[in-house]
Amino acid sequence: MLFINVVLPVFCIVLAGFFLEKKLTLDFRSLTALSLYLMTPALVFSALMNRALPAAVGGQIALYMVLYTTALMLIGTAVAALCNFRGETRRALYLTTAMMNVGNFGLPLAWFAYGEAGLDVSVMTFVLFNIPLGTLAIMIAQKEKTALWEAVGNTLKIPIFYAVVAAFACQTLSFRPPEFLMRALDLLGQGAIPLMLVLLGMQLARSRVAAGFRFLSAATVLRLVVAPVVGWGLATMLGFDGTARNVIVLQTSTPSAVLPLLYALRFSTRPDLVASAIFVTTLFSAASLTLLLYLLP
Asked: Which residues contact 16 (CB under 8 A, 6 or more apart)?
């Protein structure tokens, strides 16, 4: 029943986006901009305004993000050495294992699994994990060519962070925007989650499996098996419990992220490997995430 009630709805919407792209070839870039610049910031702002997250919990999630990303980078380095992955292949492994789909896939999944009870944690997880997606992933894709200031500048271009700053400023000043504005933002935010899944399906429709068995096996095992174990261990170590622990573990056990594929295409960092890993890990995540949901108490 967990698969039918939680995982299957996610894949139904992804498949809708997949077949829509195959049939109509929609304007993917415009829809992505709509999600990134309007609907997702509205979701983040309204979620944080309606459900105040204690500062201590936000700090815990930030620490979890740093430790989790560092652990997966170190494990990825060890696996790359064992498999003799070098240069661009090794960087492609980092992009597909240390960077998970915490937004397009993880946010809707957490919503279906835990609903309103876990929305504040899932939104904060989504926001904080966009930091390595917007900085570290770019640096990996470009190798040593990227200056730190450039990576930070790319992060500051993401409107999601301004929504977070605005929400925290309003909470600090005990200011709540007028009700008509909050209702508009709430309504826009409700459209963000299904649009994320449709965009994921559209991206998958554009992807082709073109990687070797060894790379795909390593990426899939690291992302769908090793990463949940690391996430669960870190969440327990940092004192997360109940719904907060379940949400953060579930959300960081999702398949490979789509955003690094754009970086791989831009900087020619084996986009064939990255696209193949996204496609395969998304397919196999139906089984791995269902099992994880059964294991999470």
From this structure: 198, 201
3-state secondary structure of 63: helix
- The answer to whether the CB of 206 falls within 8 A of the CB of 76 is no
> What gap in Å lies between CA 267 and CA 140, rounded to an integer?
10
**Cα 296 → chain centroid:** 20
Tokens representing 140? 């990996």
242 in the Ramachandran plot: left (φ > 0), alpha (ψ -120 to 50) or beta? left
Reading the chain (297 residues) residue by residue, the pLDDT tens digits are 778 888 999 899 989 999 999 888 788 888 888 888 898 889 888 888 887 667 778 889 999 999 999 999 999 999 999 999 988 899 999 999 999 999 888 888 998 899 888 888 888 898 888 878 777 887 888 765 556 676 667 667 767 778 878 888 898 888 999 999 999 999 998 888 888 888 888 888 887 776 678 999 999 999 999 999 999 999 999 999 899 999 999 999 999 988 788 778 777 788 888 888 988 999 999 999 999 999 997
Residue among 123, 193, 127, 189 at smallest CA distance from 161:
127
Domains and CATH numbers, the chain: 2-17+26-289 (1.20.1530.20)
Angle (CA) 15-193-40 rounded to 5° is 135
For residue 222, the cross-strand partners are none
Q: Which phi-psi region, left, alpha or beta, contains residue 175 (left: φ > 0; alpha: ψ -120 to 50)? A: beta
How far is the C-alpha of 188 from the C-alpha of 196, rounded, in Å? 13
Task: Report how far residue 115's alpha carbon sits from residue 76's, in angstroms, rounded to the nearest whole number.
Answer: 33
The closest of 161, 168, 138 to 266, measured between CA atoms, is 138
Q: How far apart are CA 18 and CA 160, in angstroms?
A: 26
